[in-house]
Amino acid sequence: MRNKGFFMAEMITATVLLGLIVAGLAVSANGFSKFNQYQWACQRCTAAALAQLESVTAAGIVIEPQELTRLWPEVNVSVERKPADTPWDSLELVQVAAASRQVTVRLARYVRPQPAIAKGGQP
Asked: CB-side exposure of 65: number of CA atoms within 13 Å?
């Protein structure tokens, strides 16, 4: 005669399988969270570096560090300007680096040197 109902082995097997599924979902959710944080940091660093590079290229001025901190907190931006090597002797190489804890973005562009703009807006 057969017993009706679950055997203890079936209950243990079902519980173990359910536990494995939940653990797998938790691990994948954590991985997606870390990936999203990395992507967000990458986007912020890229935006800050590109804004600084565009400001130097278009107006010849560097965005104030306080303004960069206000717009992109936790992102450090540095600008380096130096004369270009040959064959671009008449141009200037502008290198911008933006870094957060997870990501560092470096952008560079050759630009024509512009005279420094004074606070009043006149060169």
From this structure: 5
For residue 70, the SS3 value is helix
Q: What pTM was computed for the model?
A: 0.68
DSSP symbol at 118: P
pLDDT in the model for residue 107: 92
DSSP reduced 3-state for 5: coil
Which range of residues forms the domain containing residue 54?
34-111
Could you tell me the two tokens for 101?
């804890």
Q: Is the pLDDT of residue 118 over 80?
A: no
Distance CA 35, CA 33 (A): 5
Beta-bridge partner residues of 95: 80, 108
More confident residue, 7 or 49: 49
